[in-house]
Amino acid sequence: MHETDDMAGPPFSVPESEIRTLFNGIMTTDLIKKKTAEPLPARFANRGLTSLHQLTFIIRRHN
Questions:
Q1: How far apart are CA 60 and CA 22, in angstroms?
Q2: How many CB atoms lie within 10 A of CB 51?
Q3: What is the pLDDT along the chain (63 residues), one digit of tens a residue?
Q4: DSSP state, 9?
């Protein structure tokens, strides 16, 4: 996830709130890992990005 004002994409940023909204009531979304990319890869820094966060979810159907 990155601030959309920093870089338009691709890759495109999808905020945690949007993931939860998209699957709300249909699936269970569990955030299992949030990692800040350090150091920031040059390919992103060269495009104006100042920070990058990688979110990992487990998404399951409701039983």
A1: 13
A2: 14
A3: 555 566 777 888 889 999 999 999 899 999 999 999 999 999 989 988 888 899 999 999 987
A4: -
Give the chain's count of helices (H) and strands (E).
2, 2
Q: Which amino acid is at 39?
A: P
Q: In the numeric block, which tokens belong to residue 45? A: 């820094």
How far separated are the first and last CA of the chain, in Å rounded? 29
Place of tokens 């920093």: 6
For the chain, what percentages of helix, strand and coil (3-state, to nearest 5) are there? Answer: 20, 30, 50
Cis peptide bond N-terminal to 11, omega within 30: yes
Residues ≥6 apart with Cβ < 8 Å to 57: 19, 29, 30, 31, 32
